[in-house]
Design a protein that fits this description.
alpha+beta; globular; S-adenosylmethionine decarboxylase
Length: about 130
């Protein structure tokens, strides 16, 4: 059993949140709404989450520093969201659920899918 799952069970956590920052991603992928939507479908399947409704992907941002797509996907156990920054080709992904998932699985899957150079991962147990 991984240490995050052990802590989740020992603390009787209500939920878990993963914050994944993907760096230097493939610019074609982070600028493609259909690619992002398919990523969300595949991620939900990979970590065993049930999607609730359709994935929303909106392109906006007057300030060049934040311009790019933003994504939200309700899941039966909470929410997946992401921001895709055109200026840096970075992705800022959050997954929150009261059903356990492995944050490192989310990070590795996302890194591979967006062809990121690397990532940083933070997770929090919610009580």
């Amino acid at each position: 059993m991984d240490e995050v799952k052990r802590a989740y069970e020992q603390k009787n956590a209500w939920g878990i949140e993963a914050q994944v920052d993907l760096h230097d991603c493939n610019p074609n992928y982070i600028r493609d709404a259909d690619f992002i939507k398919q990523f969300v479908v595949d991620l939900c399947e990979y970590i065993g989450m049930k999607r609730y409704g359709e994935c929303q992907v909106v392109n906006f941002g007057e300030d060049e520093r934040v311009a790019g797509f933003s994504m939200t996907q309700l899941i039966e156990t909470s929410l997946i969201s992401g921001h895709f920054a055109n200026q840096t080709n970075n992705v800022y992904l959050n997954v929150f659920s009261c059903k356990y998932f492995n944050p490192k699985d989310v990070a590795e899957f996302s890194k591979s899918r967006f062809q990121a150079a690397d990532y940083s991962l933070h997770n929090a147990l919610r009580k």
